[in-house]
Amino acid sequence: MTLLPFLPGSRKASEGHGASGWRPVFLALAVTAVAGRGAAQAQEDEGAGLPPVHDFPAAVSFLSTLLFPIKIIQDEARLRDFVVSGQFARARRALGDRRAVDVLFRRALELSWNNTGEALAISMLATLEHRTLGIKLPLIGPLLWIPLTGEFEDEFRERVACLPERLYADTPPEGDRDKLQHFFGSAFLTVLSESADASDALGVFVEVEEEVFVVGGSRDERDIRANRQGQRFALALMNDRETLPSPYLSGGAGKEEP
């Protein structure tokens, strides 16, 4: 089972500030929903490389699907914590933003006990770049604001600021942090439907209709490109869990580079 009935709240809420941070989540989230230092710093950077894929028994990976939504709530919160961690910041410095996405996804795989569906879901949720989604109707205007995350404002801003942003050769000066939610969201939909065609059709429909029904929305061909890159990544991932996202973000395909 890979449907996500709940979205975890903020880290503060999980630390005992009540249940007000919990928010309902809809499958639509997936379409909104990728020398010269001292010895002490060198020791710090030892954990900045790409971690291996850990071996989990197939029964353990399957068990993670039976623990939804409890496990995904915990795992997504832990992945968000990883995004703002010093370890991930060092990975970005050492590897660059595109390959840092590999580190992020490997961490997601580890948290999900190698369940690729859950790993894609928590990667999508941990890279959301919008707090809310505004729905509007023609001639009426804004009608409904849907919360996409239960984070407090300061937590949200801190996490988004830590997301990889230099992902493409044509990345604009403001960065491409929003492309990761498209990439992982589309990949998740592909695994969920076991069809890139279904995921692509939905992604294109959302982009085409975004300007009409989403507050501040507009058709973005680069969003569609990220969607399709995520679809190709997901198809490869279903056959080989060691597949990395970065080659698909760069337009290629493959495993870890030497």
Principal-axis shape: globular
| Total domain units | 1
| Percent of residues in β-strands | 5-15%
Main beta sheet: 2 strands, antiparallel
Strand order in the largest sheet: 1-2
What's the helical proportion of residues? 40-55%
Summarize the helices and strands and which ones pair or pack.
Elements: E1 6-7, H1 11-14, E2 23-24, H2 39-44, H3 58-66, H4 70-83, H5 86-95, H6 97-111, H7 116-126, E3 132-137, E4 141-147, H8 153-161, H9 179-193, H10 196-213, H11 221-237, H12 246-249
Antiparallel strand pairs: 1-2, 3-4
Helix pairs in contact: 4-6, 4-7, 5-6, 6-7, 7-9, 9-10, 9-11, 10-11
Protein architecture, described:
Helix 4 (70-83) packs antiparallel against helix 6 (97-111), helix 5 (86-95) packs across helix 6 and helix 10 (196-213) runs antiparallel to helix 11 (221-237). The longest helix has 18 residues, at 196-213. This protein is globular. It has 12 helices and 4 strands, in the order βαβααααααββααααα. The protein is mainly alpha-helical. The protein has one domain. Mean pLDDT is 75; it is low at 1-46 and 254-258. It starts with 5 loop residues before the first strand and ends in a 9-residue tail after the last helix. The strands form 2 sheets. It has a two-stranded antiparallel ribbon with strand order 1-2. A two-stranded antiparallel sheet has the order 3-4. It has helices at 11-14, 39-44, 58-66, 70-83, 86-95, 97-111, 116-126, 153-161, 179-193, 196-213, 221-237, 246-249; strands at residues 6-7, 23-24, 132-137, 141-147. The chain is 51% helix and 7% strand.
